[in-house]
């Protein structure tokens, strides 16, 4: 089981300084890491009637390059503090050395005098080995610890700026949701599924019935005779399709003119496309013929009217009626 993690939110002169997260060594010192002072779950003290948590307590001592100390939530001077057990409790395990920075240790007044005060190391402290219980370490926010240690202090190593734990608590370990199990059975690829759909569509358009697929385990136990029957039926279907493709629509019309009754069947997609294309060409040719006949008719009407006639591709030319009369020999009558 994973070790619990707690946090301190620091405020420096009433300005948020950031969050420091600790991993508590519950696997080694479970009694010391009891997290009630971080969560406040025990309520108020039976002895001092003060809430049993670190929220609102201060960092009362800071030594640059060595450590910062806090946890005196009763007096705030380093002379107070109270454990969740009421009286000071014994050292649980002194075997872990203070060999690095960021270690969370119990402060005491001597052997077996642990209360609620703690300190965080800024470097390895071999001279304190065997004297203080190491019950956690900083996993994030150590830069905030270093910034607090750099705040100027007085002659008693008390920070000249107020450093308060504005909030504290335990972090919950979120479990990764289990992955959904894949559906059982055979999964078909997209390409094979699309091919089967196209095959069904083409077979439906030709009027043939699509055969239902059988499960895979039936295919395994199918006899050799059934496989031969299925193979021969597929060969017959292929030969029928080839004969239909090779036969043209003209052959069908010739057969109908010969008096033999053609068997009713639906058009294939290729025949339908060819017929539609042929009908479209015939319609365009008929429309062009009608347009030419209309142009000829308009041209003849223009010549008979004696005023305007068509010339060329739609261009009109004005002809003077008097000139037409002179050309016909009537010019002398109209001479002034």
Offer a quick outline of the entry.
This protein is α+β, with helices and mostly antiparallel strands. Helix content is 32%, strand content 18%. A hairpin with a 3-residue loop joins strand 3 and strand 4.
Tell me what the structure shows.
It is a single chain. The strands form 2 sheets. The protein has an 8-stranded antiparallel beta sheet with strand order 3-4-6-5-7-2-1-8. A two-stranded antiparallel ribbon has the order 9-10. It has helices at about 35-40, 140-150, 190-205, 215-220, 225-245, 250-255, 270-305, 320-325, and strands spanning about 5-10, 15-25, 60-65, 65-70, 105, 120, 135-140, 165-170, 310, 315-320. The model is unreliable at about 210-215 (pLDDT under 50). It is elongated, with a radius of gyration of 51 Å. It starts with a strand and ends in a 9-residue tail after the last helix. A hairpin with a 3-residue loop joins β9 and β10. With about 325 residues, it is an alpha+beta fold.
Chain-wise SSE layout:
Blueprint: E1 5-12, E2 15-24, H1 36-39, E3 59-63, E4 67-70, E5 103-106, E6 118-121, E7 134-140, H2 142-149, E8 163-171, H3 190-205, H4 216-220, H5 224-246, H6 249-257, H7 269-305, E9 308-311, E10 315-318, H8 321-327
Antiparallel strand pairs: 1-2, 1-8, 2-7, 3-4, 4-6, 5-6, 5-7, 9-10
Mean pLDDT, as a whole number? 77
Q: Terminal Cα separation, in Å?
A: 130 Å
Number of helices: 8
Helix content: 25-40%
What integer value in Å does the Rg equal? 51 Å
Query: What shape does the CA trace take?
Result: elongated
Low-confidence stretches: 208-215
Strand order of the largest sheet: 3-4-6-5-7-2-1-8
The number of E-state strands comes to 10
Beta fraction? 15-25%
Q: What is the helix/strand order? A: EEHEEEEEHEHHHHHEEH
The major sheet is characterized as: 8 strands, antiparallel
Structural class: alpha+beta
């Amino acid at each position: 089981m994973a070790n619990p993690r707690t946090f301190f939110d620091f405020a420096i002169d009433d300005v948020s300084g950031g969050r420091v997260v600790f991993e508590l060594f519950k696997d080694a010192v479970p009694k010391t890491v009891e997290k009630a002072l971080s969560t406040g779950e025990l309520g108020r003290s039976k002895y001092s009637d003060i809430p049993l948590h670190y929220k609102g307590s201060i960092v009362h001592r800071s030594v640059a390059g060595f450590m910062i100390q806090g946890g005196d939530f009763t007096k705030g001077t380093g002379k107070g503090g109270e454990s969740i057990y009421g009286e000071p409790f014994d050292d649980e395990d002194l075997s872990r050395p203070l060999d690095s920075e960021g270690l969370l240790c119990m402060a005491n007044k001597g052997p077996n005098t642990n209360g609620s005060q703690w300190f965080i190391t800024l470097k390895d402290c071999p001279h304190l080995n065997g004297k203080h219980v190491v019950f956690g370490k900083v996993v994030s926010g150590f830069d905030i610890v270093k910034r607090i240690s750099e705040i100027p202090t007085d002659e008693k190593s008390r920070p000249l700026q107020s450093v308060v734990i504005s909030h504290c608590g335990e972090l919950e370990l979120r479990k990764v949701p289990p992955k959904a199990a894949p559906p059982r059975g055979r999964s078909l690829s997209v390409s094979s599924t699309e091919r089967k759909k196209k095959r069904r569509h083409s077979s439906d358009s030709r009027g043939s019935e699509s055969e239902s697929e059988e499960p895979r385990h039936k295919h395994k136990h199918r006899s050799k005779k059934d496989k031969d029957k299925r193979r021969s039926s597929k060969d017959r279907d292929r030969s029928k399709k080839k004969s239909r493709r090779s036969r043209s629509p003209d052959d069908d019309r010739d057969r109908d003119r010969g008096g033999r009754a053609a068997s009713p069947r639906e058009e294939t997609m290729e025949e339908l496309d060819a017929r539609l294309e042929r009908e479209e060409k015939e319609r365009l040719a008929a429309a062009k013929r009608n347009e030419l006949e209309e142009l000829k008719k308009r041209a003849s009407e223009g010549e008979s009217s004696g005023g305007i006639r068509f010339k060329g591709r739609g261009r009109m030319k004005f002809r003077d009626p008097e000139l037409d009369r002179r050309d016909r020999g009537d010019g002398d009558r109209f001479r002034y």
